[in-house]
Amino acid sequence: MTTKTGKKSAWKKDDLLTAYLVLLPSFLLLVTFVIAPLVISVVNSFYDSSAYMDAVWKGMGNYTKVLTDEKFWKSIGVGLKFILSIVPIQLILALF
């Protein structure tokens, strides 16, 4: 940070502590509700799990199964058709 005279001013330790304390609740909420569930979901996607048996490592098997499934690609197509039909209509209606 520079002042009007061009000299560099150092942040005071109190200012840094205050800044970190202000950011801490937002960071904790982000980690708790976004980052941690995302990481857990990615890790769990490599396992075949059930409520009645232990999780079994499948690796990329789950992804291979989904990407080769005809129903998956049909649902992607339906979703894209829906988006391509609804979004322009809503955009036009929003202008009036």
What do these coordinates show?
The protein has 96 residues and is mostly helical. The chain has two domains: 44 residues, no CATH class; 37 residues. It contains three helices and two strands; from the N terminus they run αββαα. It has a two-stranded antiparallel sheet. The longest helix is centred in the N-terminal third of the chain and has 32 residues. The mean pLDDT is 91.
Describe the structure concisely.
The chain is mainly alpha-helical and 96 residues long. It is 67% helix and 4% strand.
List keywords for this structure.
4% strand, 2 domains, mainly alpha, 96 residues, two-stranded antiparallel sheet
Write the layout of secondary structure elements.
Elements: H1 13-44, E1 47-48, E2 56-57, H2 61-67, H3 70-94
Antiparallel strand pairs: 1-2
Which shape, going by the Cα principal axes?
A: flat
Enumerate how many helices there are, as a single number.
3
Helix proportion range? 55-70%
Oligomer description: single chain
User: Which class best fits the helix and strand makeup?
Assistant: mainly alpha
Low-confidence stretches: none
